[in-house]
Design brief:
This protein is mostly helical. It contains 2 helices and no strands. The chain is rod-shaped and about 105 Å long. The relative contact order is 0.06. Residues 35-44 have a biased composition (Basic residues). Residues 22-57 are annotated as: Disordered.
């Protein structure tokens, strides 16, 4: 009978230790210590990435394609 009580107590202790180890956000954060702050993600550029997506580039290309006299290049 004592063996059964000791076995149940050991299972409970093991379960509590495993639960505490699996919860790093708990009080004191375990052995790992506090996490360093996250770095902000880099912002995406606001300009178009490809020249064919840039309206200013397309206007300049069209201007160059047409000569001053209006005939295509």
């Amino acid at each position: 009978m004592i063996f059964l009580v000791v076995l149940v107590a050991a299972i409970v202790v093991i379960a509590l230790v495993m639960r505490a180890a699996a919860n790093p956000g708990g009080p004191g954060r375990g052995l790992r210590g506090p996490r360093p702050p996250r770095r902000p993600r880099p912002q995406r550029p606001t300009r178009p990435l490809a020249p064919d997506d840039d309206p200013e580039f397309l206007r300049e290309l069209e201007r160059r394609a047409r000569r001053d006299d209006g005939t295509p290049a």
